Structure formats: C-alpha cells, structure tokens
C-alpha cells in the first residue's frame, strides 16, 4: 500500500483520497424515515429548510397533541412548519401565512412597526388582487381595509378570526387525514 502512495502522482493520490472520504461519508449517513422521505418527495428541499431540526424525531405525544386542536398545532413550531408544507402542497399556504402575520402584527411593540406591517399585510393578503389574497367576504375585507387606515392592535382581529375559522374547519381536518401527518404518526417513537 505504501508503495502505491509513493509511486502515485499527487493528482491520482488526491482523487483516491476524495473517493475514500466520499465513501466514508456515505456509510455514516443516517437513513431517512419513510415520513421524511415522503415529505421530501412532496416538498423537495423545502422540508429540510422549514426550521425543524433534522436530528429531532417527533414524539407520538407531540403528534397526538397536534390532533387535539388547530390551536395546539399552531403552538408547535414544528407543527406550523409541517402544516405549512401541507398547505403549500394544496396551494393554500397564504391562509396560514396571513394568520401568522396577524399574530406578529398584534405583538408589534411600536407604532411605526404597526403602521408598516399594516400596510404590508393589506397589500399582500387583503386588497383585491393581492399576490397572496386570502378568502375574505367583502364586508370583512372592506371593514379591515378601513380599520387599517388608522392601525391599532385590533385592526386585523375580524379578518384573522375568519381565516382561523377557515383553517380550522377546512384545512386542518384534511391535514389530519393526510398522508403527511399519518406517515409522521406511523414513524413516531
């Protein structure tokens, strides 16, 4: 073996070492669970970038907590990520994004931040033809736009309640029956 290294050119030696390191890395890679493989196949690299720890295994208890209520799901950062990925696959992620933007808005600490966020939320989600327009009835939409002219922490409350209701009665039950959630439940410890 030593004779091989001494007789080899530096270029072939580097190539051999690279191959050895690559093979060694491949052997050390952990196998992905079927749930993670399914999520990756549905959402590509986005699943790896959703804010959850790749090494963290979801517990049966945590997954069952998500099934208690939409609110319980929204209290879990990982739950929000998985639910968001599910909604993305159904092309209705804007509802969750709007709900979370409203939460940030309600927790804004200063008036400047409140005004800036009000303008952004209105332009992104509420105005007719907005890039991520949410499904609000015209009465709620008009009232919300009017309230956002002089923003307060409660300006988005009515619209947020409507979207929460839509998520709770429509999207959330479908999520609990989805292959994404069921496969995570099967693979939990």
Automatic annotation (TrEMBL):
Pfam families per the UniProt record, alphabetical: RGS (PF00615)
RGS domain residues = 69-185
Q: Which domain of life is it from?
A: Eukaryota
InterPro entries to which the protein is assigned, alphabetical:
RGS, RGS_sf, RGS_subdomain_2
Q: What protein name applies here?
A: Si:ch211-152p11.4
């Amino acid at each position: 073996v030593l004779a091989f290294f001494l007789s080899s050119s530096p270029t072939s030696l580097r190539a051999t070492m690279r191959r050895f390191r690559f093979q060694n890395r491949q052997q050390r890679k952990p196998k992905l669970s079927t749930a993670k493989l399914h999520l990756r196949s549905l959402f590509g690299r986005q699943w790896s970038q959703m804010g959850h720890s790749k090494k963290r295994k979801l517990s049966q208890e945590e997954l069952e907590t998500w099934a208690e209520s939409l609110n319980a799901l929204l209290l879990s950062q990982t739950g929000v990520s998985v639910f968001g990925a599910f909604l993305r696959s159904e092309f209705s992620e804007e509802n969750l994004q709007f709900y979370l933007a409203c939460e940030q808005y309600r927790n804004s600490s200063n008036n400047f931040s409140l005004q800036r966020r009000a303008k952004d939320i209105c332009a992104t989600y509420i105005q007719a033809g907005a890039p991520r327009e949410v499904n609000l009835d015209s009465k709620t939409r008009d009232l919300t736009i009017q309230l956002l002219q002089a923003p307060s922490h409660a300006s988005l409350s009515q619209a947020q309640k409507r979207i929460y209701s839509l998520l709770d009665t429509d999207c959330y039950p479908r999520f609990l029956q989805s292959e994404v959630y069921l496969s995570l439940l099967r693979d939990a410890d």
